[in-house]
Amino acid sequence: MNYKWIGAVLIIAGCGGFGFSLAAGYKRQESTLRQLIRVLNAMEWELSYRLTPLPELCRQAGKEARGALREVFLNLARELDWQTAPDAASCMTAALQRSHDLPRRTRELLVQLGQTLGRFDLPQQLKGLAEVREACRSELEALSQNRETRLRSYETLGLCAGAALAILFL
User: How far is CA 35 from the centre of its chain?
Assistant: First the structure.
């Protein structure tokens, strides 16, 4: 009899944990996009006023960021220094392969960034940075619509699904 109740509590906790995990991933994606916008602003300022070389620019971007985004930019700077790939887009792909903690949409935006870095003259690079930043902003705006309701729904659905499963098994 006690094993059934212990199992029910574990099922509810497991499903609830999954719902809370979804909500945490959602918050992490928002945070990563905000960081990326801040890094892109810093990169644009550096390129506009100092004409910083691309590996150094990526190193500075890595210092601006935290977590997985920091790792990506520092890996990109290493790839550019080593010149293992013919262009910045290939270097960005290699840097992204080493980082596994990034949300899917952020990866796509970083690939888009890699396609514009070091490929064009300064005005076109700045335009590319602005496009990626605007894509980040629109993605962030889409994520923030009904944010609280969505997060609460993830958490509630996880707990309710766990309770439903526990009731079925009892």
Answer: 9
Contact by Cβ (8 Å): 68, 99? yes
From the list 11, 27, 33, the residue with the least C-alpha distance to 151 is: 27
pLDDT in tens, 64-116: 899 899 999 999 999 888 877 778 888 899 899 988 888 889 999 999 998 88
Long-range Cβ contact pairs of 10-14 (< 8 A, separation 24 or more): 11/162, 11/165, 11/166, 11/169, 12/159, 12/162, 12/163, 12/165, 12/166, 13/162, 14/162
- Which positions ≥6 away from 110 have C-beta within 8 Å? 36, 72, 92, 96, 102
pTM of the model: 0.84
pLDDT of amino acid 1: 66
HSE-CB at 126 with a 13 A cutoff on CA atoms is 12
Q: How far apart are CA 165 and CA 156, in angstroms?
A: 14
C-alpha 30/C-alpha 75 separation (Å) is: 22
Tokens of 57: 């620019």
Instruction: Please say whether the beta carbons of 88 and 119 come within 8 A.
Output: yes
Q: What are the structure tokens assigned to 101, written together? A: 């903690």
